[in-house]
């Protein structure tokens, strides 16, 4: 009985933990926003770890408390891939992929900065992390268009273009230093045979990468993230040091 009681007191971890408790071991914790789309109105809906967990359904409505939403629920609402994943529910709203309304998340962040000013008078810094494959490279050519319907390709390309536009609007609305980081998987592949490198890259880019990730693809992505972190530190003029959350000293 004592063992069962102790197990029931364990704090949920990973995707099962409450979004409001998400800190990454940092003090104060970084604010995290997961945006989804209201399927019936087209409005942005976001979930955040701030103030113990919040949700905002429509601008300029004030955020509402959401202490019970978990990290997994927020992630799933934000990434309900069109057609593949069914719509979710939050109260009367039906939620679909956040990319419909805000594919890069930058529009959501700009609204937060301008409307809520969660950081007070601090000057925000934009770090734009782009993980999309480059249009032109040794392995990927723009002429290699995938065999999909033109209408579907137009939808996907429009989402990408709107994401790029949102980034530019953020930079114009909030002047300050910005960092653009491209997590280019191709730069992390070291196979000397060009053909093998390109084939490995194609496998990493292919679906269903968004639903499950092979061990090799995960290693490639991790190496790409490390490369991107070095880019950020180089631009900011800071030294990069990686530490586990448990090693972070709290004030």
Give a structural overview.
The structure is a single chain. With 251 residues, the protein is an alpha+beta fold. It has helices at 2-8, 71-78, 99-102, 106-116, 150-173, 194-205, 215-236, and strands spanning 33-38, 44-48, 54-56, 64-65, 88-90, 93-96, 126-130, 178-182. The strands form two sheets. It has a six-stranded antiparallel beta sheet. The protein has a two-stranded parallel ribbon with strand order 7-8. Strand 2 (44-48) and strand 3 form a beta hairpin. Helix 4 runs parallel beside helix 5 (150-173).
* Overall number of strands: 8
Globally, the shape reads globular
Walk across the major sheet and give the strand order. Answer: 4-3-2-1-6-5
Outline the biggest β-sheet. 6 strands, antiparallel
Q: How many angstroms separate the termini?
A: 38 Å
Helix content: 25-40%
Low-pLDDT regions: 1-7, 243-251
Strand and helix map with partners:
Elements: H1 2-8, E1 33-38, E2 44-48, E3 54-56, E4 64-65, H2 71-78, E5 88-90, E6 93-96, H3 99-102, H4 106-116, E7 126-130, H5 150-173, E8 178-182, H6 194-205, H7 215-236
Parallel strand pairs: 7-8
Antiparallel strand pairs: 1-2, 1-6, 2-3, 3-4, 5-6
């Amino acid at each position: 009985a004592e063992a069962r009681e102790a197990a029931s007191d364990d704090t949920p971890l990973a995707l099962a933990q409450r979004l409001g408790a998400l800190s990454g071991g940092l003090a104060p914790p970084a604010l995290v926003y997961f945006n989804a789309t209201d399927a019936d109105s087209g409005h942005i809906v976001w979930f955040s770890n701030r103030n113990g967990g919040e949700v905002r359904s429509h601008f300029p409505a004030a955020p509402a408390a959401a202490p019970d939403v978990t990290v997994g629920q927020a992630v799933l609402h934000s990434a309900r891939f069109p057609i593949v994943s069914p719509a979710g529910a939050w109260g009367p709203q039906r939620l679909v992929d956040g990319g419909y309304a805000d594919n890069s998340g930058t529009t959501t962040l700009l609204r937060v900065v301008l409307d809520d000013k969660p950081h007070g008078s601090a000057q925000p810094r934009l770090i734009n992390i782009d993980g999309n494959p480059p249009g032109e490279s040794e392995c990927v050519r723009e002429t290699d268009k995938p065999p999909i319907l033109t209408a579907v390709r137009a939808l996907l390309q429009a989402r990408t273009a709107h994401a790029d536009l949102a980034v530019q609007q953020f930079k114009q609305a909030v002047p300050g230093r910005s960092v653009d980081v491209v997590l280019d998987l191709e730069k992390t592949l070291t196979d000397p045979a060009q053909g093998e490198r390109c084939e490995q890259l194609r496998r990493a880019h292919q679906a269903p990468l968004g639903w499950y990730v092979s061990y090799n693809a995960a290693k490639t992505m991790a190496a790409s993230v490390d490369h991107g972190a070095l880019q950020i530190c180089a631009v900011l003029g800071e030294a990069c040091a990686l530490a586990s959350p448990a090693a972070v000293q709290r004030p």
